[in-house]
Amino acid sequence: MTEPPSIADDQAAVLAFLGRSPDAAVQRVDTHCSIVFLGPDRVLKIKRAVKLPYLDFSTLENRRRACEAEIAVNRPHAPAIYRKVVPITRESDGLAIGGRGIVVEWAVEMARFDETRTLDHLPHRATPDLGEALAAALLDSHRGAPLGDGSNWLASLPVIIDRNTEQFRGQFAAPASIRRTN
After folding, report:
1. What is residue 52's three-state secondary structure?
2. What is the rounded average pLDDT for all residues in the chain?
3. Residue 46 is inside which H or E element, if any?
4. Which of 56-70, 82-96, 101-115, 129-143 has the least mean pLDDT?
5. DSSP string, 20-39
6. Taking CA 15 as the corner, what is the angle to CA 95 and CA 39, rounded to the nearest 5 degrees?
7. Which range, of 1-5, 60-64, 83-87, averages the lowest pLDDT?
8. Among 40, 100, 160, 172, which is least packed by CB within 10 angstroms?
């Protein structure tokens, strides 16, 4: 059962709910299209309710499909990490993860892993065998990936550039007293 899009698109209550933890050990990480909540043993990742030229997470249904696609793409490569898609539901006593009430959001559930074992931490332990195994895994993954024509990506560039330019201007605007005029 799903919530009407006008209610589901307001993610503030879900973000507040996921940010609370009885043990206060939840860390929030924001990206341009996702919000990740890192708990001691579990990670929940939701898609931002945004529509960009190259992705559309503006509806609850689109976010559910994106979560399912993420599991489908990543589970074959990391089955111990990518667990499942879980609903965040509205219950009589508030929000719940995996409840039976009205679905207000979807999340990818993952196992927390040791972040000191990611590739950016491994250069000192890298070997030619590791490099070859990584290259072979990437090649296999790319061989099995669907091909696209790149048109969505190309169309998104002007929008991304304009948005970034606007944000940089707002972030780094000089005070009026020291602005130069031409």
Report:
1. strand
2. 85
3. strand 42-47
4. 129-143
5. --TTS--EEEE-SSEEEEE-
6. 90
7. 1-5
8. 172
Q: Given this model, what pLDDT does residue 179 score?
A: 52
How many beta carbons lie within 10 A of that of residue 99, not counting itself? Answer: 18
Instruction: Provide the token pair at 116.
Output: 């000191």
CA atoms within 13 A on the CB side of 36: 12
Measure Cα distances from 147 to 19, 142, 170 in Å.
Answer: 37, 9, 38
- The two three-digit tokens of residue 100, written as one number: 């039976």
Note whether 80 and 150 are within 8 A (CB). no
DSSP 59-110: SHHHHHHHHHHHHHHHTTT-TTTEEEEEEEEEETTEEEES-SSEEEEEEEEE
Instruction: Take residue 7 and report the two structure tokens written for it.
Output: 């209610």
Please check the confidence at residue 31 and state whether its pLDDT lies above 50. yes
Distance CA 125, CA 116 (A): 12
